[in-house]
Amino acid sequence: AADAEALPLPPETVPPPPQKFIDGCSWAPDPLEEAKRRWATTYHWRLQNDIDGLLTRPQPWYHLIKKCYPHFYSGRSRDGELVYYEKTGYIDLSPAEAAGATLDDLVSHYLFLVEYCWRVLDTSPQGKCVNVIDLKNVKLSFCRGKALEFLKRTSAILQDNYPESCRVLLIVNVPSWFSLIWKIVKVFVNEITLRKIRIANHSDTLKVLNEFIDIDQIPAIYGGTALYGDGGPDDARYSSPLEQQTAAYVDALPAVAAGRAPPPPPRWCPCHGHPPPPPAPAESA
After folding, report:
1. Domain ranges of the chain
2. How far, in Å, CA of 170 to CA of 206, rounded?
3. pLDDT (mean) for 229-254
4. Residue 276 in 3-state DSSP?
5. Dist. CA 284–CA 93, nearest whole Å
């Protein structure tokens, strides 16, 4: 499974922790030691699950899962961060499950998106993302469905292995009974992340988005002026330049795996990936 439990590694085999891990442990009495501990677990998790190889493996479920699980990157924040949207209330995993996709496949899809974000779309060492979680159409039944289990697993993976990657989490279009589901969800969110969360009902959604994102970068479905196609409800989901770039990348992967196309150039995640050591200098004759 993509989130298999990592086993300890000898300390000498683990590279120094990335700065994001150190920043994310500022609460600890000894931030560096805590960062080393967390990073060692993440480093082995990445080795155990070949996370560094994820971007070169075909993603046969990509397009179907995208239909079942509405999410997309669209535009940038006022400070230049990527903006990720997720329409939680419209998640319907049943078509993917009927086609044979498992929960592990769904989690792997999400991991692919995260790795693509930080190894292709934004490779800056201190890069952060503005995350928008849209709760329009969320029903109380969501609290006991597989969609919630999927979100719990992906949330845990993000907290454990991708620290300091979220600048702010905007939960928008919240229903009137949101406080009930929030009591369930917030127990899976750490204190540092809780301080980054902003919550808005339908009438305040555009206002809260505009605090961080210029109006011309906000998709039309949220009251902004960003249009990529017909301006319909799925406009940004499929037609934003970032989404078209990602889809083209995914569609090229089978040819890469079959040896019919060269692999994409190696990209090393500034937060997690470490390039191989340089070759040893040739011995002089």
Report:
1. 11-49, 61-252
2. 11
3. 91
4. coil
5. 61
Q: How far is CA 121 from the centre of its chain?
A: 12
Beta strands per DSSP E along the chain: 71-76, 82-87, 129-134, 166-174, 197-201
CATH match of 61-252 with 3.30.390.30? no
Residue 47 CB partners (closer than 8 Å, separation 6+): none
Specify which residues 168 forms β-bridges with: 130
Point out which residues pair with 201 in neighbouring strands.
Answer: 174
pTM of the model: 0.84
Pairing of strands 166-174, 197-201: parallel
pLDDT one-digit tens code per residue, 57-77 = 999 999 999 999 999 999 999
Taking only the tens place, the pLDDT of each residue in 27-60 is 899 999 999 999 999 999 999 999 999 999 999 9
Angle at 48 between CA 194 and CA 13, to 5 degrees: 95
CA angle 273, 279, 281 (to 5 degrees): 150
Residue 4 has pLDDT above 60, yes or no: no
pLDDT digits (tens, 9 = 90+) for 92-118: 889 999 999 999 999 999 999 999 999
State the CB neighbour count (10 A cutoff) for residue 3: 17
